[in-house]
Specification:
Blueprint: E1 4-13, H1 20-38, E2 42-50, H2 54-63, H3 67-84, E3 91-94, H4 98-113, E4 117-127, E5 132-134, E6 152-161, H5 167-176, E7 181-182, H6 184-195, E8 201-202, E9 204-205, E10 213-214, E11 217-222, H7 224-229, H8 231-234, H9 243-248, E12 253-257, H10 261-275, E13 283-286, E14 289-291, E15 294-295, H11 306-313, H12 315-324, E16 332-334, H13 336-366, H14 378-399, H15 403-424, H16 426-429, H17 436-457, H18 462-471
Parallel strand pairs: 1-2, 1-12, 2-3, 7-13, 12-13, 14-16
Antiparallel strand pairs: 4-5, 4-6, 6-8, 9-11, 10-11, 14-15
Helix pairs in contact: 2-3, 5-6, 11-12, 13-15, 13-17, 14-15, 14-17, 15-17, 17-18
Length: 508
């Protein structure tokens, strides 16, 4: 039986327009999912949309439609973008679906019956855009510490979750599972937050109606974060013991942006502890993108729209740039100049040029039929070793979610291939029929090394890898076995590859 791997993105808020941050997390999830499938795992990859809460209710009222009509309309933007980006998710969960509501009502009721949710009264400073209550001590100049918008004092009857009860248990869990919160800087941040003391959490609202009603007291709506976080289990069929739930929970990794770290590493684990459910194995928080050095914001009109990038540069260029440019976990800066440089140098010059040169020579010297290989010399063995080492380096990087390092390791083999051509000079060998066997070996090593490269790159740039492997005469399903040297067989048909990535010239 294949090992199981469950990766999730956050569910995206339908009041947002999809931007580069949404694309970043989802592409990372997709690359991880594709890579794990390639390595022989049975993968469950979940994304979706968060459709409840006061912001959606307000936006719908303003637009003169019901909240569900707004959600139905806006969710299509996300679904269409994932299709364009080649996202291979197993499931798309919407918090307005019955299967989700059933899971939320069940876990709420379960914790309520165990006595860890109780009815009380709440008074504090509330930020509507963030849907979060703040104690006065955490306000900055009487504004929300997260989004810097004004807050208002609210007093209402509320259900509370006894989060304070789980403070030590959570600290013990983080201590016992060093990889639970990644990267390390975020782990330290959460440890100090928890050590400052956890307060009981208000988990219901009565000031609006758009959400899941509290079981048995329908004037209360379940707090939007309690609702949203439950998607990771409701999508698998919870509370029913479905085959998916039994196979894939707990999640292998929740991929999130650092702005929602606390919800995923304090609220979510304590909810699960209270319900007696297993905790996810890892929560990985990546950084934020700025644009040309400035924070992305609607008011600055500098929000990077992924569809526009795809139209301009192509899907695989966008996928490559997002994961190559910035180490996953750190903040990054987006600029068109940086993207064009990656496109022209890494993709067009290095990767694309290597493939078109190599396949052109195979067509010219061997009529496009892959020759048999003779004895490998020292230089051939070095390329073979470098290719094999790359496969294990990438595996280690992917375990750490170090996508940019994995791509770096792959590009070392691409550079080695370009250098190998210069050092073996096939065009010189081709002039003397006595060198026919040597030329055959050089061509084989050159093409086989690229076959392994493109098998791994199929996780990062699926469409590009498919084209490249077709021109290399490799039509098998990409799998772990295909990462071993020797996959190309003599007699395979090689066709001259078209430029994988035409150079991008900025038009005046």
């Amino acid at each position: 039986m294949k090992p199981a791997f469950y990766v999730t993105t956050p569910i995206y808020y339908v009041n947002d327009v999809p931007h580069i941050g949404h694309a970043y997390t989802t592409v990372a999830g997709d690359v991880l999912a594709r890579y794990k499938r390639l390595m022989g795992y049975e993968v469950y990859f979940l994304t979706g949309s968060d459709e409840h809460g006061q912001k959606v209710e307000k936006a719908a009222t303003t637009a003169g439609e019901t909240p569900l009509e707004l959600a139905d309309r806006v969710v299509k933007r996300f679904q269409a973008l994932w299709e364009r980006l080649g996202i291979s998710h197993t499931n798309f969960i919407r918090t307005t679906q019955e299967r989700h509501k059933k899971g939320v009502a069940h876990i709420f009721k379960d914790i309520l019956e165990k006595g860890d949710i109780y009815l009380g009264e709440y008074e504090d400073w509330y930020c509507t855009p963030c849907e979060t209550f703040w104690p006065e001590t955490q306000l900055i100049d009487n504004r929300c510490p997260d989004c810097n918008r004004p807050v208002e004092k609210l007093k209402e009857e509320s259900y509370f979750f006894r989060m304070s009860k789980y403070q030590q248990m959570l600290l013990d869990h983080i201590e016992a599972h060093p990889d639970f919160i990644q990267p390390k800087s975020k782990r330290n941040e959460i440890i100090s937050f928890v050590k400052e003391g956890l307060r009981d959490l208000s988990v219901s609202r009565t000031t609006f109606y758009w959400g899941i009603p509290v079981p048995g007291n329908e004037k209360h709506v379940i707090y939007v974060w309690f609702d949203a976080l439950t998607n990771y289990i409701s999508a698998l069929g919870y509370p029913d013991a479905t085959p998916e739930y039994q196979r894939f929970w707990p999640a292998s990794v929740h991929l999130i942006g650092k702005d929602i770290l606390r919800f995923h590493t304090v609220y979510w684990p304590t909810f699960l502890m209270a319900a007696g459910l297993p905790l996810p194995e890892k929560v990985f928080a990546h950084g934020w993108w700025t644009v040309e050095g400035q924070k992305m914001s609607k008011s600055l009109q500098n929000v990077v729209e992924p569809n526009m990038l795809i139209d301009k540069y192509g899907v695989d260029v966008v996928r490559y740039f997002l994961l190559r440019e910035v180490p996953f976990g750190l903040d990054g800066d987006f600029s068109h100049t940086a993207l064009v440089q990656r496109l022209n140098f890494d993709l067009a010059n290095d990767l694309g040029n290597l493939l078109s040169r190599s396949t052109a020579m195979a067509v010219k010297y061997f009529n496009g039929v892959l020759p048999s290989v003779a004895e490998l010399t020292e230089i051939d063995l070095a390329l073979k070793k470098k290719t094999g080492d790359m496969v294990s380096n990438v595996a280690a990087c992917m375990d750490d979610l170090a996508f940019s390092k994995a791509l770096q390791a792959i590009w070392e083999v691409v550079s080695a291939g370009n250098k190998y051509i210069d050092e073996t000079a096939p065009w010189t060998l081709a002039k003397d029929p006595a060198n026919k066997d040597r030329l055959a070996t050089v061509m084989y090593c050159l093409l086989e090394s690229q076959r392994v490269v493109h098998c791994i790159l199929s996780a990062f740039m699926p469409a590009t890898a498919e084209k490249a492997l077709a021109s290399l005469g490799w039509d098998e399903t990409v799998s772990k076995e295909g990462l071993t040297w020797g996959g190309l067989k003599a007699g395979a048909t090689i066709t001259k590859a078209e430029a994988l990535f035409p150079r991008y010239e900025e038009k005046e």
